[in-house]
């Protein structure tokens, strides 16, 4: 290690919390806990499960030594981390480069008064630093230091003036219990639990009994009830519907529970340039990101949400790839899981000035867009309908016709609502019908723009335009307009491309007409 | 080729050796068009045919030796048709391929069925790779990969460039700093 000049006073080195090894060990153990339980409880472990346990034990031992060797110090403008046992590495992390700060505290962390702190920069696969675990006071101190160093990036296209310390309360939103219950009612987080439960069952239930057979045993009585009351061929359908209803109700109940557990005590606050959320009943998660690092905003309201006069607002921030996968709730995401539209507007305006759907001048899609939407859905419904048609006979056609009718209504409505807007600074797309979505991003956040068309698009004189940004969550509503008039699409693509480069020169010129 | 073409007629093909259509007007003196290497199409065709042969020959030969002559012939015919179709497909791809270096970024246009035009500003290029396979090295052909911080178009591959062109493109794309936009 190169030692700095003798004159430069070094900040004192700090270690992790003395009980860090416990948390590291638990993290390691969690990954092998299921095979371990199978091994211990059922006593029928295979040799490779034993091997896995031995391997995990070795890994855990390594982690123990590792956590004892971990050192960090807080210099004037950077964090220095020394870690490693065989390969000692010293990493310098300038405060200004840290984009996301994630703090996690599960009940055990809270019992010991400690916290896991994770710092991320824009790129890379791994977080810059993971401190598991440090005393809560230290975590808060590091967070404060990082917040104070959150100067806007030099050379940014959108220099946001550093505002004087917020005079008003930094808290933008709190969610009391009634709001959490509303949230549980409109979301389907329960399915996540069901999915996880199924995965666990698959691993734990012995093969000879089988998950499918257990599930059937669960369903069977309901079918029996149906058969008692409604004789004839409808019994099966009726009891299936009854069972489905019960499942849906149970999942709704789970969703309510999940909403309360995940978002209990939700607080959104803005301190200087950092936006920070904190939530969780058992595991408390704190996520924060620099305000100017918000890549895009996503607004949504479902049918039920609209009836309650509520909307949801989330955002995407850039960051490493793995962190997003291993801990879905880690990064700053929900600015307002549920809130009245006026509140949502206020929050969006505060976090990302001007990114508001209501300020955009929305432009329609191609007049025939609904036809394409209808055709696509109708095609798939027809494909899906063929096997039951063969199996159950022509009455399936009635259901098919109903579905097509529904699809028609949906396509008309979705094509009417679907729209885009670009004012030279903000690119926005909206779409949907029962669940409506809006997404907005500044042109300066665009990484690339694309104009695409399929053979069907070209036959109908349409094309789609999209802008890519960093940190897009897989499966999220994309910043992409489909079924746009081909000429409008070309114009839009050209004007997006012309504004994309913050230090744009004059050399760009649209491609000559085809 | 028969009259029933499986492909749309290749759209405005660039004459293989013609000078790039540089706009004569005031703008864009630095805009430069990069053409495919003259042998790139051959290379793609031969590698594709090679793969088809490698995958289809054992099956067809095995069937023929087992005495199933008809299935063997059908498989061979299918492989032949696929090879012919790939020949046309690759020609259409090469004809539609356009790669232009503009003053402020890279403009790629390509695709036979799924047309796609993508623009990446120079300031958004995170890093680049220039790759050459063993066969491509013989012809002096290279593949350029351009990486951005984006999520959906995080990587843009431009295959079939002359090695010198790929290097020139790379150098020019990395030439200027700026905000990374995240």
Question: Could you spell the SSE succession of chain B in H and E letters?
Answer: EHHEEEEHEEH
Number of helices of chain A: 16
- pLDDT averaged residue by residue of chain B: 82
Sheet bearing the most strands of chain B, described?
Answer: 4 strands, antiparallel
Number of distinct beta strands of chain A: 21
* Physical arrangement of strands within the biggest beta sheet of chain A: 7-6-5-11-10-9-8
Helical/strand content category of chain A: alpha+beta
Fraction of residues in H or I helices of chain B: 25-40%
Structural class of chain B: alpha+beta
Detailed description of the structure:
The complex is a heterodimer of chains A (about 525) and B (about 180). With about 525 residues, chain A is α+β, with helices and mostly antiparallel strands. Chain A starts with 13 loop residues before the first strand and ends in a 14-residue tail after the last helix. Chain A contains 16 helices and 21 strands. Chain A has helices spanning about 20-30, 35-40, 45-70, 105-110, 135-150, 175-185, 190-205, 210-230, 235-265, 305, 320-325, 340-350, 370-390, 395-415, 455-460, 485-500, and strands at about 15, 70-75, 80-85, 90-95, 100-105, 115-120, 130-135, 170-175, 265-270, 275-280, 285-290, 295-300, 310-315, 335-340, 365, 420, 425-430, 435-440, 445-455, 460-470, 480-485. Chain A folds into four domains: about 10-70; about 95-150 and about 170-175 and about 265-350, no CATH class; about 195-245, no CATH class; about 365-500, Roll (PH-domain like), CATH 2.30.29. Mean pLDDT of chain A is about 80; it is low at about 1-5, about 150-165 and about 505-514. Chain A is globular. In chain A, helix 1 packs antiparallel against helix 3 and helix 6 runs antiparallel to helix 9 (about 235-265). In chain A, about 45% of the residues lie in helices and about 25% in strands. With about 180 residues, chain B is α+β, with helices and mostly antiparallel strands. Chain B has four helices and seven strands. In chain B, strands 1-2-3-4 form a four-stranded antiparallel sheet. Chain B is elongated, with a radius of gyration of 20 Å. The chains are: A alpha+beta (about 525), B alpha+beta (about 180). Chains A and B meet through strand 19, strand 20 and helix 16 of A and strand 3 and strand 4 of B.
